[in-house]
Structures are given as C-alpha cells and as structure tokens.
Amino acid sequence: MPTSADYNRAEHLLLPSAGYGAITSNTQTASSFTPIKVTTGSTVIECGALGTGPPVILLPGRGGSGPEQFDQLGVALAGGGFRAVAMNPRGVGASNGPLDDLSLHDLADDVAAVINSIGGPAHVVGRALGNRIARCAAVNHPALVKSLSLISAGGLVPPVARRTTAQPPTRRRPRNRWHQAGLAHEHAAQTTPVDEWWSGGDAPILVIQGLDDHVAVPQNGRQLAAAFPNRVRLLEIPAAGHMVLFERPDLVIPAVLSFIREIDDAER
Fold this sequence. Notes:
Layout: E1 12-14, E2 34-40, E3 43-50, E4 55-59, H1 66-69, H2 71-79, E5 83-88, H3 104-118, E6 122-127, H4 129-140, E7 145-151, H5 179-191, E8 205-210, H6 219-227, E9 232-237, H7 244-247, H8 249-267
Parallel strand pairs: 1-9, 4-5, 4-6, 6-7, 7-8, 8-9
Antiparallel strand pairs: 2-3, 3-5
C-alpha cells in the first residue's frame, strides 16, 4: 500500500456552490441493496451490499441506517466499479449486540468483522457520528482500512448555536427510527477519549465539510488537515450544513468516488 506521502499534500479545496460534476438521476434506492449479515460473538451486523469490485464500507450517522443514508452514494459506487457495503450499526434494523457501556472501539470492531467477512482491506466512508467509528477502525485495524472519507466530521471542536444558510436537502433525509441505538452510539462517542480515534491511524483521508455546519463545525476538518497535512484532503462546501450529503449529493458523491479511485490507482 502506498504511504501517506503518495497522496495529497495538504490540499484544501473550497468548492463553489455549484459545479464539480453532475450525478445522473437513478431510481434505485435503499431497496437496491442485497441484505447480508455478519456474526461476531454475540453481535450480528446487518449490511446492505450493492455492486462488485473493491469494497467500500458505509457508516451512517447516529442511530441511522446505512442503506437508507447512503442510497445514492451506494448506487454511484456500484456504478463506478466498487462494492458498496452499507452497515446498520448495533441496534439498527436487524443488527443486534450489547449496547450497554458501548465504546467506539466496540463499534470499530464490528466494522473490522464486516471487512474480514467480505474480504478486505476496504475503503471506509463515515458520515457524522459514523466518521468517528471509521477513524477508530483505522486506528485499531490499520491493515483493514485503505482510506477514510469523512462527511460532516466533528468530534474535537464543539457545536455552536444554529445559524445557517444551508440549502434545503435535494431529498428527504432518512429518519432515525432507532432511538435507543442512537443513545448508545452517542454514549460511545462521548465516553471514548478523542485521542484514541481522532488521527484516523495512518490512512489517507478525505474530509467533506459544509461551511454552515453548526454540529460538526468546519474547524474540525481544518484542525485535522493542519495536524496531518501529508495525508488529509479537506473539501469545504459553502451554503451547506450538517446534512451536506443530502443537501449537495452532486458535490459530495463525485468527490468520494474520485478520492477512492485515486487511492486504488496509486496501488496499481
């Protein structure tokens, strides 16, 4: 695998509010994913798989479903020659396992179990709280994680009062129906020390931030890029908030596809 020096050297992109390529309309949705289950100990993780090729693990935000939150990205990945594997974390959908005193390390181990089951290493995409799980997986299981794409990535700089000019989402955001799981995931995020996952190991990283994100404020991505300039690429999108994946899929999806293709091309 190439070293981090082979990747972007502290590149910082500020995208305009339009452009960067178009996403072709596709009527496929979360139902397009084929259900698979991975059992590790007393934990069963439900995933949705779509496409063939190098695997890309998709980790949703707190208490959310991977196939629902990543329906558009999953279809685009499959169309681009990748195998999209969208996870339902513990307590979501048919996934189950202990939720008491959960840590990000537990959730990261679930990611590792899925990658080992499908055959890795894998690219990992994490949205919102899923970005913390993705980074923890890269720290704890570096041989299994080829790259990290982090969308709305907070965890270090605290949220601020809501004040946004973000655009309305292009589609309705999937509801988080698994409240108890969400509480357990939030507990894991709040009780796992930041320095145990913040670095993302040695993996090359793409960070995508909405400039009007009041939850994962842009300073989070900027501090990560400043701390690891040889392996972090920061892409900021104006007039977009914490739901940047749903607000601007026309910008987010091509950026993720381009990044992971670059990583794979560098290995050939």
